[in-house]
Amino acid sequence: MADDLPLVTLERRDDGVAIIRLDRPKANALSVALLAQLEEAAGALTADPPGAVVVWGGDRMFAAGADITEFGGTEDAVRIGGSFRRALDAVAAIPRATIAAINGFALGGGCELALACDFRVMADNARVGQPEILLGIIPGGGGTQRLPRLVGTARAKDLILTGRQVQADEALRIGLADRVVPAAEVLEFALAWAAALAAGPLQAHALAKRAIDEGMDGALADGLGLEQTLFVEVFATEDAASGVQSFLRDGPGKAAFRGR
């Protein structure tokens, strides 16, 4: 398939969920062209946020990794690495909950795309991993940074230095997957989870996600300061006012939020 065709599609559903679909047969290899389209889709969801986002590669394959045919020397590495950085940072920056729905394989750059999402729903027969070391190279799309933040440094080094693939049960045990479901139910489960999130206080979601993500990048004191700033900011939202009033009137868990 020529890379001037749509390789990434963006669908906005009536329930507030947006689906980013990778569509580059046969393995959703993450070419520079696909990454550019992914960056564009993520940018559109940042400019006009939905309620929540599902990233989906299809029933057969999430993404097998970077397009190895584009690899060459150091100049190619600069170009490819920059494309991964821009695209996956754009996914991570979407100010709503993002869920990677993983069927088949999420390897190399595919695993790094899943790591750039907030949550990962994994098929019970799927596999994830960072096999770059088997090519004599290292991850270049965030794997050395996002993976240890998720599973710890020793586990990340184990996965990256061996290049081994992780099955669903181990992924769940070490925190690399958040839910494991039958393969036929992955997309349905992810969409239902996203719809439930989309019905929540979306401004609070955005502020909480920002506090966590930016706080993890600095000192604890700086993160606590950011949290206090955003804690004050969230009280200016309509959902905060209605949520507090609902709690005082009806008790917890009864508020109906409008995302404002």
Describe this structure in words.
The protein has helices spanning 32-47, 74-92, 109-116, 143-151, 153-162, 168-174, 186-198, 202-216, 220-234, 238-250, and strands at residues 8-12, 17-22, 52-56, 98-102, 105-107, 119-123, 127-129, 165-167, 179-181. The chain is built from 10 helices and 9 strands. The protein is 48% helix and 15% strand. It is α/β, with parallel strands linked by helices. Helix 1 (32-47) packs parallel to helix 2 (74-92), helix 4 crosses helix 5 (153-162) and helix 8 (202-216) packs antiparallel against helix 9 (220-234). The protein folds into 2 domains: 8-198, 2-enoyl-CoA Hydratase, Chain A, domain 1, CATH 3.90.226; 202-250, Lyase 2-enoyl-coa Hydratase, Chain  A, domain 2 (Orthogonal Bundle). The mean pLDDT is 94. The strands form 2 sheets. The protein has a 6-stranded mixed beta sheet with strand order 1-2-3-4-6-9, with helices on both faces. A 3-stranded mixed beta sheet has the order 5-7-8. The N and C termini lie far apart (42 Å).
Brief sketch in words of this structure:
By secondary structure, the protein is an alpha/beta fold.
The total tally of domains equals: 2
Strand content: 5-15%
User: Secondary-structure element sequence?
Assistant: EEHEHEEHEEHHEHEHHHH
Calculate the mean pLDDT score and round it.
94
- CATH homologous superfamily grouping of the largest domain: 2-enoyl-CoA Hydratase, Chain A, domain 1
| CATH-defined fold name of the largest domain | 2-enoyl-CoA Hydratase, Chain A, domain 1
Characterize the biggest β-sheet. Answer: 6 strands, mixed
What gyration radius follows from the Cα positions, in whole Å? 19 Å
Biggest sheet: strand arrangement: 1-2-3-4-6-9
